[in-house]
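Hi, here's the filled form for the chain we discussed.

Project: internal
Contact: R.S.
Residues: 102
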Amino acid sequence: MGRNLLYKNDECPSLAKQSAESEHNPDRRGATKGSTVTGFHQDEDGHWVAELSCGHTQHLRHQPPWQSRAWVLDPALRQEKIGLPFDCGWCAQGSVSDNLDD
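And the returned structure, exactly as it came back:
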């Protein structure tokens, strides 16, 4: 006969602790408060990337109409952004495995 469909199968999946190198924030850098732009560089595709004081980076593309950041194309306007506060998305997310024990 077939399997009893009313029988509850309690499976306990194993949850392996992820290694620190797979986390967004492996060295547990500080939170978003106080993060500022420290500089800019271009990636291999020519897109501008902001370097942040927390150690993370953030692409700042000008691709209208989806992303309108014309200032990033002007060296003088980019220079004006250095030292300004920047909310880092990676720091805001925290560690991916914060819910797992060390």
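Let me know if anything looks off before we file it.
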